[in-house]
Design goal:
- The protein starts with a helix and ends with a helix.
- It is built from 21 helices and six strands.
- It is α/β, with parallel strands linked by helices.
- The chain is globular.
- Strand 2, helix 18 and strand 3 form a beta-alpha-beta unit.
Length: about 500
């Protein structure tokens, strides 16, 4: 039986890795998700065959509770997943990241509290967790950890810290993305406060390891929750894609650590794969912003303090244009580049954008889509929206592939994007965006920006692109504005 279980876990791991590989391309992403889903189902079903579950005296009761939890969680995820609007997808991703971290932290809490209840005179939590199993009676199943000489208590504590921070931080990220929490102000001495909280948390972790007393365990988890909140609240809107990616990586690492605690190979592999992939994605996104991950967390970029810095003075004013004139300009262009942003997602304008693209293509206009790595509110947000609308993948270009082409572009149409086309990132050393690679929209012959109003973007940073001589503003809701462009092109 053990051989069957381990072979099934190995097959599940292969499916996880192959699925992740498939997700690297929009063409095969759907198939990759399906493969990974099959792997997860296999790993879950095989776990029920484990002797730690089947040989437990409370097997029937535990099985009923497990199945009930799966039914509730799976049913809720199915319903919400089917109903969630594409504009709310970042919130859902942030919430699910948090649930994964919370689940890993809960596993650690159960193990630590169970060991605490059996603390004997002079025995440490580490000694108990190394000798008792999930049921508190049998030898611990973490044979992998034992073979490697890894102290499972340390792994449980580290996983608890990471998972708890990912949980509370992801909840804050969800609240900010959903508009339920609008503040991102730094507390006085915010970094010092976070440092002190971290040091106290480490002290509590040491106390939990050596004493296993209830109060340090409770304080340990409570402080980890607070630290996750304090770390995430100051993070500005423009950094949300990086934060979501980072919390995804932390959740994976926490699951991997708790997999060692339980001796579950499927959890170890799945957590490690998610953690490594999320870490790589976080690094690439931070690199795309020319910033370090530490700078994302501790600089307060996007906060009111950062956004209100002494940026270089900008001259000029926004020049409005009507949809009829934009339609004519685009219909007779040689090349049009469309830059989507979160405003397109909010307006649900992606289907209209694709309809406009088809009309322009029929008139002999070359149309391309330019995607910045951190456009939107989550990694790949714009790619998902365009794929939903049916935009062919060969029309979608990453920033490094299209930036050199803006000089040959007649019209660049910016729909709801702000920071990713802000030339201050290249020219103004005092701008919070300075050094961040951007899409070179200003190099186009003409730039048309569809925007709901005259305010700043999500990060709160002014954009001098809107004041340039070759830029015109088409104010209004994204879907309504694009629909007007469609009618204007049809009339020609």
């Amino acid at each position: 039986m053990e051989a069957i279980i381990q072979a099934s876990y190995f097959l599940a791991a292969v499916l996880f890795i192959l699925g992740l590989k498939q997700m690297s391309s929009p063409v095969t992403a759907r198939r990759g998700i399906q493969w990974a889903g099959v792997g997860m189902i296999l790993a879950t079903l095989v776990t029920f065959m484990s002797p730690e579950i089947t040989d437990n005296p409370q097997f029937t009761t535990n099985l009923a509770l497990i199945l009930l939890a799966i039914a509730i969680g799976g049913g809720f995820a199915w319903v919400t997943g089917k109903r969630v609007a594409m504009t709310d997808m970042p919130q859902m991703i942030a919430m699910y990241n948090g649930m994964g971290g919370g689940a890993a932290a809960t596993i650690a809490a159960v193990e630590l509290l169970k060991a605490q209840s059996e603390v004997a005179a002079g025995a440490s939590t580490g000694e108990l967790l190394g000798s008792v199993g999930l049921d508190g009676l049998s030898p611990h199943p973490a044979s992998i950890s034992a073979a490697m000489g890894v102290d499972v208590t340390i792994l449980a504590i580290v996983g608890a810290i990471i998972g708890t921070i990912a949980f509370s931080g992801s909840i804050i990220a969800w609240a900010k993305l959903d508009g339920r929490l609008n503040t991102n102000k730094l507390l006085p001495q915010q970094q010092l406060i976070n440092l002190l909280l971290s040091l106290v948390l480490i002290g509590l972790a040491i106390s939990v390891y050596f004493t296993g007393e209830l109060m340090p365990i409770l304080l340990f988890f409570g402080l980890a929750l607070v630290l996750g909140i304090f770390i995430t609240v100051p993070v500005g809107g423009a950094d949300m894609p990086v934060i979501i990616s980072l919390f995804n990586a932390l959740t994976g690492l926490a699951v991997g650590f708790e997999g060692y605690v339980l001796g579950n190979a499927a959890m170890i592999i799945a957590g490690t794969v998610v953690g490594s992939a999320g870490s790589l994605l976080t690094h690439l996104m931070a690199k795309a912003m020319n910033r370090s991950v530490g700078n994302v967390f501790f600089s307060g970029f996007g906060t009111s303090a950062a956004a209100g810095g002494d940026t270089a003075a900008t001259e000029g004013s926004m020049k409005e244009i009507q949809a009829q004139d934009v339609g004519i300009m685009m219909a007779y262009a040689s090349q049009v580049v469309i830059i989507p942003g979160y405003g397109m997602a909010v307006a649900q304008a992606q289907h209209k954008v694709w309809e406009l693209t088809q009309l322009l293509t029929d008139k002999g206009v070359t149309v391309k889509f330019a995607i910045h790595p951190v456009a939107g509110r989550m990694p790949g947000h714009m790619n998902v929206l365009l794929a939903e609308a049916g935009v062919p993948y060969d029309l979608i270009y990453d920033m490094e592939d299209i930036n050199a082409d803006f000089g040959n572009t007649t019209v660049t149409l910016v729909i709801g994007a702000n920071d990713v086309v802000n030339p201050a990132a290249k020219k103004d050393p005092n701008s919070p965006l300075f050094g961040m690679p951007i899409l070179n929209a200003e190099e186009s012959e003409n730039v048309v920006v569809i925007k709901r109003g005259r305010g700043t973007g999500f990060s709160g940073v002014e954009n001098p692109l809107f004041l340039l001589d070759n830029t015109r503003m088409l104010f209004g809701d994204g879907q309504k504005a694009v629909n007007e462009l469609i009618q204007a092109v049809k009339e020609l």
